[in-house]
Amino acid sequence: LPAGFGSLQRLKMLNLSSNLLGEFPAAVLALPGLEELYLSRNQLTLLPPGLCQLRQLRTLWLDNNRIRYLPDSIVLLHSLEELVLQGNQIAILPEGFGQLSRVTLWKIKDNPLIQPPYEVCMKGIPYIAAYQQELANSQPALKPRLKLVLMGLKDAGKTLLRRCLMEEDRQREDAGGPESGSAQPRGYPGQQRDAGGSKGIEVMDWTADAERGLTFIVYELAGDPSYDVIQSFFLSPGALYVLVVNLSAYVPQHFYRSVGYFLHWLGSKVPHAVVCMVGTHADLCAERELEEKCLDIHHQIALQEKRDAEGLQSLVQQVDEALGQDFDLRCSSPHATFYGVSDKNLRRKKAQFQYLLNHRPQILSPVLPFSCRDRCQVRRLRDKLLSVAEHRDIFPNLHRVLPKSWQVLEELHFQPQAQQLWLSWWDSARLGLQAGLTEDRLQSALSYLHESGKLLYFEEHLTLREYVFHNLPRLIDILNVFCQRDATVLLQKLLSDTHIDELRATQLHHYVEGFLLHGLLPAHIIRLLLKPHIQSREDLQLILELLEKMGLCYCVNKPKCKPLNGAAAWYKFPCYVKNEVPHAEAWINGANLSGQSFVVEQLQIEYSFPFIFPPGLFARYSVQINSHVVQRSDGRYQIYAYRGKVPVVVSYRPARGALQPDTLSIASHASLPNIWTAWQAITPLVEELNVLLQEWPGLYYTVHVLCSKCLKRGSPNPHTFPGELLSQPRPEGLTEIICPKNGSERVNVALVYPPTPTVISPCSK
Where is 331: in which H helix or E strand? Predict the structure, then answer.
């Protein structure tokens, strides 16, 4: 900054973002009246201790720098309301950080946080304060535990690989080796495990290195697409992912199905995920064949990563070119790539692309050949997993510091006698007292255990916050039941009672048929399916609430205010729906049921997913919108419903070729004077989708408003206006926009901009 900059004593706001500042500008400290300071996207490594001199500072943005630690004096900025630190190298927060109690906008992700742990920091300042207070009153505890996730196709060999690794450690234990380990299912006594291959999702603990106390929590995901709706819940940051490929069955033409798809899926859910490639059944391949297949996988991964990165870089370049234009010039022609998009939204879009570019998957090479018959290969894989897990630059969270009381609380929740499916809040509070935690300090500990994937505790849900779901293996067994597509297996569960007559058996058979075709089940049949997990009506209601919260099902006939008065409650599982809804398809294509074109105006928002459509997204979204709609009719790819008296259609269209993206659209219609009713109908649905998509921070997607004139003409390729316009106010004086597909037609501005810019912009996250 120029000499004398500090003389600007009346300066209130200073934005120095996106520069090349390597040091914090000393002149800024001479501005005591400064209230807002933006230093995002620079090259800062240190902050001066004198930062506390800026006592009136309310906003401080320091994201995407190279800051390794914060000065202790930062806790003295008592007026601070916004503190953005994401994308740095911060491992430890200063003591007394909870003093920043006025901070409401807080961003800290993408830092190698150890103390407090990442999961605590992400919850906010009050949770950081509780952690630091607990640490001050309790001994620190270090317990290295790492989540290990096995993923791959159904026949990849995940189950065999897991058992070979754990059997190797059992043999070491039997031999009394210095590095003996052990493996045991996380669950309850008598839990049945498949003797052949995996059935659904499984979880167990594996003490891979008893000497160093390193434990893996091993999640084996199912390779069956039937489990798509629940599997994304088990992909989380801070885990080591093993992508398993059956080398004996692998052919280069099926690379994307075997490898590429899983990398796209994982990258969209967990940016910067650490992936170890393992090729199983190596003993069934000749030496040259083995080498060629491993090299091909390595080569095709590199090609896919290169294509994805080049695509994102091209998008960054397009945004830069648009930013280089004057805003008025961008608004002058609807042919412009980012027609009407504000500079602010363009900068957000560029930041999103840069984030995706900077957080590509960390794929460890080469592909490790593996055969259970080769003890050397088994030991080599085990040693590889241990060395990666203990690498502090890759997994700093492994060495997180916890208050002793939190660790004791975790152990008490998972003690062998804790066989129940869930604990009440008061049961959990009693365990908290044993751990030395009073009720007011228990909340933060439970929240940490939830965020770190040890248990489920929904503190913001009106019903579920009264319970703690501590027995994850039993809960996963329940989830597995609702991903089962085999009618024989479902019938066996229902017919397990020997006192069932022929008529009753026929009824149960019809229930199963209806479930597998339409996704419908009454509550009492769900209770039968979940034996022996469900013992009481209270258990059943709680599990149904949980399934609805997770987006697996919704109650079809639940009244808004009064109970059902004894009528059977029916639940719909959208992931099972197979029937189509042709009348919704006709409506969305611009015709009514008799085939005549609409005279009203159509409003349609379309989401495009060029890389991957998140598995299970449509089914979960179907559940999320249920509270907003009535008179709904569901198909495999469409939902036809009403918002009040206004019709809405949600439609998913899978990609029809390699160059076409998957799309999900939300549509409504009304006459032009009443088009605000169509906006009012679709806005909550758009907002629900945007909230749901935030669970996939590494996902690239675009949003567009389709041209109503093109839709009315039945155009197969309607013109699209940028979705960023949804979050911008209508330009003053603008009444019509020319459709570039047909220069003579003009689109009313009310069909492109909502009445008020309340819709969440896709790039605002």
Answer: helix 327-332
Token pair 């050397």 is found at 376
- Summarize pLDDT for 284-335 with one digit per residue, the tens: 999 999 999 999 999 999 999 999 999 999 999 999 999 888 888 888 777 7
- Please name the residues in contact with 440: beta carbons below 8 A apart, sequence gap of 6 or more: none
pLDDT of residue 189: 31
- The residues with which 456 forms a beta bridge, in sequence order, are 469
At a CB cut-off of 8 Å and minimum separation 6, what does 751 contact?
601, 603, 672, 675, 705, 708
DSSP SS3 for 151:
strand
**CA proximity to 263, closest of 230, 290, 300:** 300
Q: Check if the beta carbon of residue 353 is closer than 8 Å to that of residue 312.
A: yes
Q: What's the DSSP call for residue 725?
A: G
**CB of 162 closer than 8 Å to CB of 150:** yes
- Rounded to the nearest 10°, the torsion over CA 502, 506, 512, 517 is 170
Sequential DSSP letters for 277-323? EEEE-GGGS-HHHHHHHHHHHHHHHHHHHHHHHHHHHHHHHHHHHHH
Domains of the chain by start residue, with CATH: 3-137 (3.80.10.10), 145-171+198-312+355-398 (3.40.50.300), 402-472 (1.10.10.10), 484-576 (1.10.10), 600-751 (3.30.310.200)
What pLDDT, in 10s, does the model give residues 747-760?
888 888 888 776 55
* Residues whose CB is less than 8 angstroms from the CB of residue 58 and which lie 6 or more positions away in sequence, other chains included: 35, 36, 79, 80, 81, 82
- pLDDT at position 200, please? 82
SS3 state at 550: coil
DSSP letter for each residue of 433-480? HHTT--HHHHHHHHHHHHHTTSSB--TTSTTGGGEEB--HHHHHHHHH
Residue 449 clears pLDDT 90, i.e. is over it? no
Distance CA(537)–CA(264), nearest Å, equals 41
Q: Is the bond into 754 cis (omega within 30 degrees of 0)?
A: no
Lookup: tokens for 307: 């294509």
Instruction: Return all residues near 444 (Cβ < 8 A) that are at least 6 apart.
Output: 120, 123, 126, 127, 130, 131, 134
Nearest of 310, 309, 313, 336 to residue 323 by alpha carbon: 336
Res. 181 pLDDT band, cuts 50 70 90? very low
- In the predicted structure, residue 357 carries a pLDDT above the cut 60: yes
Dist CA 83 CA 755 (whole Å): 32
Tell me the pTM: 0.85
Q: ∠ CA 166-172-173 to the nearest 5 degrees? A: 90
Which one, of 74, 72, 68, 31, lies nearest residue 51 by Cα? 74
The count of other CB atoms within 10 Å of the CB of residue 95 is: 12
Cα separation of 51 and 700, whole Å? 37
Length of the chain measured in residues: 765
| Per-residue buried b or exposed e for 551-588, using 16+ beta carbons within 10 Å of the residue's own CB | bbbbbbeeeeeeeeeeeebbbbbbbbbeeebebbbebb
Contact residues for 324 (Cβ-Cβ < 8 A; gap 6+): none
Rounded percentage of the chain residues whose pLDDT exceeds 70: 90
pLDDT > 60? residue 585: no
